[in-house]
Amino acid sequence: MEHQQEKTPVRKRQQGVAKHTRLIIASNNAGKIKEFKELLSPYGYEAVSMREAGFDEEIAEDGETFEENAHIKARAVFEATGEPVIADDSGLEIDFLDGAPGVYSARYAGEGATDKDRCDKVLREMHGVERELRDARFVCVIYFIRAEDAEYSVRGELKGYIGDKPQGKNGFGYDPIFMVSDNESMADLSDKEKNKVSHRAAAFRKLAEILETIGG
Ligand code: ITT
Question: What is the CATH number of the domain that holds 129?
Fold first, then answer.
């Protein structure tokens, strides 16, 4: 269920939001958790990772879409804790690779691989491919479960293209090979800049409208 995105000033959004409602972030990805804590900070929520909330089980992400996997993660943590939860399933879709790595973004170079291994694999597959065929997008689906009968899903995307080599020191995952302009990769952006333009920020803006409407 998706809400309309509106341009509401942050100060106005804060009105009526209950302070210190705990919101569990159902993720083990340190990069995502950091970004969500920053994105949530104006909203009066106490954002905690699932590990900080005491949840340390493995969740099998066996869905076929970002929506399914985000739902699986949010549901597992909500059922264990009974507290409001958000989960993010996200990834990189490359046109030339027919949408790969897509929902397999985290596992693209196999178990135990690093962000660098995954970036290197994509660069090898895209080696020699001309610029016009390098278009890609980051996708983020956030699933929010506030209560047993209150579930929401929102999606955000960011278009860019795959660079020829890694570039930039910030961010995580595929950021160093994802060009947001002809001279900047996502990893060249500061945390603040990334949180304005990213797929996660785009999805979060829609979630923020929901948080504002329900008042925490
Ligand atoms: P959790 O499931 O615990 O949240 P994860 O890393 O396994 O962590 P996903 O299954 O959603 O998360 O996989 C997403 C992968 O897509 C992630 O590991 C990155 O490689 C990539 N990714 C997602 N968002 C990204 C971003 O903002 N910048 C760069 N890469 C990103």
Answer: 3.90.950.10
Domain count, the chain: 1
Interval 72-109: pLDDT, tens: 999 999 999 999 999 999 999 999 999 999 999 999 99
- Whether 89 is catalytic is yes
Ligand 1 pocket test, pick from 24, 28, 32 with the greatest ligand atom count within 8 Å of Cβ, gives 32
Is the CB of residue 113 below 6 angstroms from any atom belonging to ligand 1? Answer: no
Mean pLDDT of 166-173: 98
Query: 3-class DSSP state for residue 98?
Result: coil
The reply to whether ligand 1 has any atom less than 6 angstroms from the CB of 27 is yes
Residue 105, C-beta contacts closer than 8 angstroms, at least 6 positions apart: 90, 91, 92, 118, 173, 174
What is the C-alpha to C-alpha distance for residues 103 and 81, in angstroms, rounded to an integer? 26
pTM (2 decimals)?
A: 0.91
**Measured from the CB, is residue 91 less than 6 Å from ligand 1?**
yes
pLDDT in tens, 28-60: 999 999 999 999 988 888 899 999 999 999 999
Give the active site residue among 89, 95, 98, 120.
89
In a domain, 1, yes or no: no
